[in-house]
Amino acid sequence: MTTRTAPVASALYDLPGPVARRRHRWYGVVATALILALVAWVIYLLFDTGQFTSVKWSPFLYKGIQELLLRGLGNTLKAFGFAAVLSLVLGAVLAAGRLSEHRVVRWVSTVLVEFFRAMPVLVMIFFIFVALKVHPLPALVAGLTLYNGSVLAEVFRTGINSVDRGQREAAYALGMRKTQVTTYVLAPQAVRAMLPTIISQLVVALKDTSLGYLITYEEFLHAGKLIASNLDYDLPFIPVVMVISPIYIGMCMLLSWFATWVAKRERRNPKTKAVEVAPAEPGTLLPGAP
User: Fold this and answer.
1) CA 257 vs CA 142, 155, 200, 250, 262: distances in Å
2) CB 75, CB 134: distance < 8 Å
3) In terms of pLDDT, which residue wins out, 238 or 148?
4) Does residue 90 contact residue 264 with C-beta atoms inside 8 Å?
5) Coil/strand/helix, residue 286
6) Long-range contacts made by residues 280-288, C-beta under 8 angstroms, separation at least 24?
């Protein structure tokens, strides 16, 4: 005789029965049909407005246009590379200042973090470019660094404080100084929790490099703007968007994939390694024991 196992209920919800599963399948079919209809409508509008005509796509066949796009992409990656490294460094410095035991250092760091977090990125970039008369690339990198560095400072500080208090107390009990406790005990444990947020903020920095076109920095979006405003090709704005957007999305997805890969690698290879213990040997356990 066969016995049927009753479905195991969860603490959050009960497993759906046959009627609920059938209803969910219908929901999925209807949602898929609506999404396909929306995509078909958008494609119809693109064809109806002549966005796929050869004259609008012909610019991408010319070597000069391709070199312009590649040069703009290289400038975008260069600005992002500088901004990412400097933001991480500035964030670590400001976080250390906010965690400092010296009141003056802590107050100054807090004021800087709150000020740069509240200031719009575009305003900072324009101020550095116009008022301080800095070249476009340093102005863009400085604005991105000040904003993203202040945000990362809060991420670092929160990550350090999220580590169990017992870890800090145990390290101090071993005679370690505060710098050693933060560097060798707290930071390695906090990095795993902070990594997704850090990568998310770097994705924001990558997207904000597009603000460089407002100060005539020849980045990727600036190159696309030059092509889209060309009257000789009937203003190919939509084709330029359809070429540039997937590249931006691909770079952001690559950063997210890298974060996932690093997180999995950290879980597989923890920094703490097992210590080999010598096998027990016969001998006296206590002084004076027979």
Assistant:
1) 27, 20, 11, 10, 9
2) no
3) 148
4) no
5) coil
6) none
Alpha helices in the chain (DSSP H): 18-48, 54-57, 63-98, 103-118, 121-126, 136-162, 165-173, 178-180, 187-208, 220-228, 237-268
Distance CA 265, CA 64 (A): 42
- Lowest average pLDDT, out of 33-42, 44-53, 200-209, goes to 44-53
Distance separating alpha carbons of residues 206 and 122, to the nearest angstrom: 14
| Distance, CA of 74 to CA of 58 (rounded, Å) | 23
What is the per-residue pLDDT across 207-252, written as a single tens digit (0 to 9) for each? Answer: 899 899 888 898 898 888 888 887 676 778 888 888 888 998 898 8
Buried b (16+ CB within 10 A) or exposed e, 83-100: bbebbbebbeebbbbbbe
Instruction: Map tokens 């208090």 to a residue.
Output: 165
**Per-residue pLDDT tens for 172-203?**
787 788 777 877 778 777 777 788 888 889 98
Dihedral sign from CA coordinates of 99, 92, 212, 234: negative
Neighbours of 7 (CB within 10 A): 10
How many Cα neighbours within 13 Å face the side chain of 67? Answer: 3
Q: What is the CB neighbour count within 10 angstroms for residue 107?
A: 13
